[in-house]
Design goal:
The chain has 11 helices and 12 strands. By secondary structure, it is of the alpha/beta class. The termini are far apart. It is found in: Cell envelope.
């Protein structure tokens, strides 16, 4: 009986060891934790990790600001050093994060990139890229602008972090489309560093210096919020065409009260959900698509209460 008990204990310990070995930490590292956009990404990631039913764990972190690029690099390197099972990363800079992602690749840690692309040539270091087609999203914002202001006059572009992968595609798509399809004069872009207060001050100055401005585009969540607040404070709500980007509560209210004609909304929840889902597949030795489009919706007062908008607003 004693021998049987010892054998059963040994089997249990071995099984526990095997189970522990198969469990892995998925490290989700985003551009900043101080944004409802990235908090909505976390909600999606939470939903996906719940489907693992405890087989794997997840951590979520990001710098205090999107401009704190060195902090994000350190977070990725720390994740590699503690031998996490997989990494979901939204890189704040296309070049600066490449060495850290390469270290993960060398350590055989699968990486899925979301929102912003890494520099050309770095695609061999990660398994999948999930994002809005930012260039297409910028073009949709530009088309919405032209539809309302026409093809002549002056518009301003309020951007965020120069050189960020999403910014290059989004603002590049917007300005290229405007130049190709209209004679609109573009003022800017101005870079808020994704700081709402900075965007507010910049927009206040732009409005004061350009009394003939017909339209203005705020290219990400904190920038668009600051832009919207500046427009209201200047008494310009409804007097020029303002188009935002992303879909938190502030921006939804701006659409409803007419401060914004429209806001272009990404599937932020889907980035977290589908990103972690892809990593779970990779940990289970399954294949995933190299590129996954998480979509975008142009939200206006006409469709803000419809399912197509409710599915992406947060």
């Amino acid at each position: 009986m004693r021998k049987l008990t010892i054998a059963l204990m040994a089997s249990a310990i071995a099984l526990a060891g095997a189970t522990g070995a198969s469990a892995a930490e998925i490290a989700v590292i985003v551009k900043t934790v101080n944004s409802t956009f990235w908090q909505n990404v976390q909600k999606g990631a939470d939903a996906a990790i719940a489907t693992a039913k405890g087989k794997h764990t997840m951590t979520f972190q990001g710098p205090a600001a999107e401009s704190a690029i060195a902090d994000e690099v350190n977070m990725v390197e720390n994740a590699v050093n503690r031998k996490v099972g997989a990494i979901l990363l939204a890189p704040s800079d296309p070049d600066a994060l490449v060495p850290a992602v390469k270290k993960a690749w060398e350590a055989r840690i699968p990486v899925v990139i979301i929102d912003s692309q890494l520099a050309d040539g770095a695609d061999k270091y990660y398994q999948s890229f999930l994002a809005t087609d930012n260039r297409k999203a910028g073009e949709l914002a530009a088309q919405a602008m032209i539809d309302k202001v026409g093809t002549t006059g002056k518009i301003a572009v309020m951007s965020y972090v120069a050189g960020a992968g999403s910014e290059i595609g989004r603002v590049g798509g917007f300005t290229d489309y405007i130049k190709k399809n209209s004679k609109l004069e573009i003022v800017g872009p101005y870079y808020s560093q994704s700081q709402m207060a900075t965007a507010l001050n910049q927009t206040t100055d732009v409005l004061a210096a350009n009394s003939d401005l017909k339209g203005i585009f705020g290219a990400n969540e904190p920038t668009a919020i600051g832009m919207g607040r500046a427009i209201k404070q200047a008494g310009k709500a409804g007097k020029l065409v303002a188009i935002g980007f992303d879909g938190n509560q502030d921006l939804q209210e701006f659409v409803k009260d007419g401060t914004l004609h429209a806001t272009v909304v990404q599937g932020s929840f889907q980035m977290g959900d589908k990103g972690v889902e892809a990593l779970l597949k990779l940990l289970d030795k399954q294949k995933v698509e190299k590129t996954i489009d998480t979509g975008v919706v142009v939200v206006t007062k006409d469709n803000i209460d419809k399912p197509e908008a409710k599915n992406v607003l947060y």
